[in-house]
Amino acid sequence: MTETWIAVAAGAALTAGLSSRLLIGSRRTRPLANIVNLENETSVDPDSGAVRSVQTADLLLDQAALEEIWTPEHLERLARTYWRFLTRATLGLIRVRYTATERTVVLLLPPLRLLTFQAPEYEMDDTHGLVRWRIARGLLVSRRGRGRGYLQIAVRRSVDEGSSRARFHVEVAVTNFYPSIASRLSRPVYNATQSRIHVLVTYGFLRSLARLDLATSRIGRFAAQG
């Protein structure tokens, strides 16, 4: 039960930190893209209890600007931007530790490992891109869910006919996730805490992309490719 209450405390930290961050972020510089069609779809498999949570948004921006960032390097930087936003949104309470084979989300100290992911997998072609982290273990995932689910960011680009503007579709999805809070406490507690917080954080991340401020990757796997 100690692990469960740590998970609940992490949720409270996320809520407090994100609220402060959103107030600060409202004074940021003028956005370079318009965010439209912000949507959420979260569901639970009635038989297995597995969660699928998907948040999406469209960024409308100049075609030249989108062409500039449509590279493997910038896809890797987009992935890093997600983790940077998580740390900034929680005022540093939630941090990400990197190794050659894993990414670990911790609450302040390394022993408090909320989620550990395998190293990211990348896919990219002329119109689609994908980065996926497979869930390995952590305080927020139940024992039955270890090694089964994943977090991914998928992007797709298109051009609005008769316009100089392009559409950059971004989807953040958690699939086949088994939350420890739901199994140890209850589904309503999970829905009111971790699930709601995840949607709030992801919405904040998607809105932050309007500035096209993509973080430099910690690993730099594709940096040499430009």
Structure, described:
Helix content is 34%, strand content 34%. The chain is α+β, with helices and mostly antiparallel strands. The protein has one domain (2-216): Alpha-D-Glucose-1,6-Bisphosphate, Chain A, domain 4 (2-Layer Sandwich). Strands 1, 2, 3, 4, 5, 6, 7, 8 and 9 form a 9-stranded antiparallel beta sheet that branches. Strand 6 (121-124) and strand 7 form a beta hairpin. Helix 1 (2-25) packs parallel to helix 5 and helix 3 (72-89) crosses helix 5 (187-208).
Percentage of residues in strands: 25-35%
> Which structural class do the helices and strands define?
alpha+beta
Mean pLDDT: 86
Shape: globular
Report low-confidence residues grouped into runs of 5 or more. Answer: 22-27
For the terminal residues, how far apart are their CA atoms? 48 Å
The CATH class is identified as Alpha Beta
The biggest beta sheet reads: 9 strands, antiparallel
DSSP helical segment count: 5
Rg, Cα atoms, Å: 17 Å
Number of strands: 9
Integer count of domains: 1
H/E element order: HEEHHEEEEEEEHH
Task: Briefly note the CATH topology name.
Answer: Alpha-D-Glucose-1,6-Bisphosphate, Chain A, domain 4
Describe the protein's topology.
Layout: H1 2-25, E1 34-44, E2 51-62, H2 63-69, H3 72-89, E3 94-98, E4 102-107, E5 113-118, E6 121-124, E7 128-137, E8 150-159, E9 165-177, H4 180-184, H5 187-208
Antiparallel strand pairs: 1-2, 2-9, 3-4, 4-5, 5-7, 6-7, 7-8, 8-9
